[in-house]
Amino acid sequence: MPSATMMIEQTAEEASLGARAASRIRLEQMFRSHHELIWRTLRRLGLSPDLAADTTQQAYLIAAERLGDIRFGSERAFLFSTAIGLARTNFRRSQRCQLESDMDVHIDPGARSEQLTNHCSAVELMDRVFAKTDADLVTVFVLFELEGLSAPEISELIDIPVGTVASRLRRARATFRAAARRMELAYAGQAR
Questions:
Q1: Mutual angle of helices 75-95 and 151-158, in 10-degree steps
Q2: Which of the two residues, 103 and 144, has the higher pLDDT score?
Q3: Are 91 and 131 a contacting pair, CB within 8 Å?
Q4: How far is CA 69 from CA 6, 65, 75, 125, 141, in A?
Q5: Is the pLDDT of residue 27 over 60?
Q6: Buried/exposed 11-38: b ≥16 CB within 10 Å, e otherwise
Q7: CA torsion, points 50, 58, 152, 136, in degrees to nearest 10?
Q8: Based on the number of CB atoms within 10 Å of its own CB, is 47 exposed (0-12), middle (13-18) or buried (19 or more)?
Q9: How far is CA 115 from CA 100, 118, 120, in A?
Q10: Range 113-192 classified under CATH 1.10.10.10
Q11: Measured in whole angstroms, how far is the alpha carbon of residue 102 from the centre of its chain?
Q12: pLDDT higher than 70, residue 117
């Protein structure tokens, strides 16, 4: 007959196995639900496909380590804030290196020359505007305009009030419009 101590140890071990299984399931659900959106958002924030994938994976590794600290229902917000923080760190790091300007442009072999030129120009324009724009404004702009998230969703994701989301979005749009207008005027002046 097993002793009371052995029974307590066995029960504790079973509870530990159950908790690990529940954590693994929760992490898998987080991955299935949010992985693609996080990767896509990081790409739209200017990270290369490989760096976006690495940063997304790093965010999930951090989530796995801190799973017990993440409130149920706040998984997406945790992952987004972690991924965005990692992206900002990567951006600061990249500013210290001298890289080629077209490293993030991958050419589609089936695309026509005019399409490639337009795509490269659009990417370059966005990069120039966003490089001079506050990172907080860029984050809200990308999440709203490119990812199609609502203001309340963005508020939850990056843990700021909805009013702040609206304010940052207004400022980001104004910054983008002003930069586009300046570039349009400069282009019109060169065309003369």
A1: 70
A2: 144
A3: no
A4: 31, 9, 10, 40, 29
A5: yes
A6: eeeeeeeeeeeeeeebbeebbeebbebb
A7: -70
A8: buried
A9: 21, 5, 8
A10: yes
A11: 21
A12: no
Domain boundaries defined on the chain: 16-97, 113-192
Q: Which contiguous run of DSSP H or E holds residue 45?
A: none
C-alpha–C-alpha distance, residues 32 and 171, integer Å: 33
pLDDT of residue 21: 86
Give the residue, 131 or 170, on which the prediction is more confident.
170
Predicted TM-score (pTM) above 0.90 = no
As given in the structure block, the two tokens for residue 94 are: 């990249």
How is the chain split among helix, strand and coil, in percent rounded to 5? 80, 0, 20
Q: Check: CB of residue 172 under 8 Å from CB of residue 137.
A: yes
* Measured CA angle at 131 (ends 141, 83), to 5 deg: 60
14 vs 87: which has the higher pLDDT? 87
Query: Which amino acid, one-letter code, is at 158?
Result: I
SS3 72: coil
